[in-house]
Design a protein that fits this description.
The protein is mostly helical. It contains five helices and no strands. It is elongated.
């Protein structure tokens, strides 16, 4: 851990706790996303859990080494997929012809929404944390 005027040492207990919980948070987020159409939850809730990984990382090591512009670009790509996948299934009529494809379709949509929400909340937190009060602006 870097210790100087810009980067004071954070709590060792907090680092250990988040370090131990990090893989479980990741697995739990993907579990909620993958089983969202079978159980309460789904893409949004799982994405919120995945976004907490960005927040936890920032809490234990507040250094701007994640490019929020790249994350924002990935967020836009997943948003395009969220719009295009349902349009494809709607206009092709695949779901009505093959009802067994409904569950894989819902799983794909949960994954896309979960990743979109995870990136979206992660970008929002990182931009708030690093650009607040600096006078820098960003655009959609």
């Amino acid at each position: 851990m870097i210790q100087d005027e810009q980067h004071p040492t954070e709590s060792l207990i907090l680092q250990l706790a988040i370090g131990l919980l990090f893989p479980f948070m990741l697995l739990f987020g993907f579990y909620i996303i993958a089983n969202g159409h079978y159980t309460p939850g789904g893409g949004f809730q799982g994405g919120g859990i995945l976004a907490s990984l960005f927040i936890a990382r920032y809490v234990i090591f507040p250094v701007e080494d994640i490019d929020s512009e790249k994350l924002h670009s990935l967020q836009r790509i997943f948003l395009a997929f969220i719009l295009l996948v349902p349009l494809f299934f709607l206009f092709s009529g695949i779901i009505t012809q093959f009802p067994l494809l409904r569950k894989p379709y819902l799983t794909i949509m949960d994954i896309l929404i979960g990743i979109q929400v995870g990136f979206g909340l992660g970008v929002a937190v990182l931009r708030f944390a690093f650009f607040q009060g600096s006078g820098q602006t960003w655009h959609l």
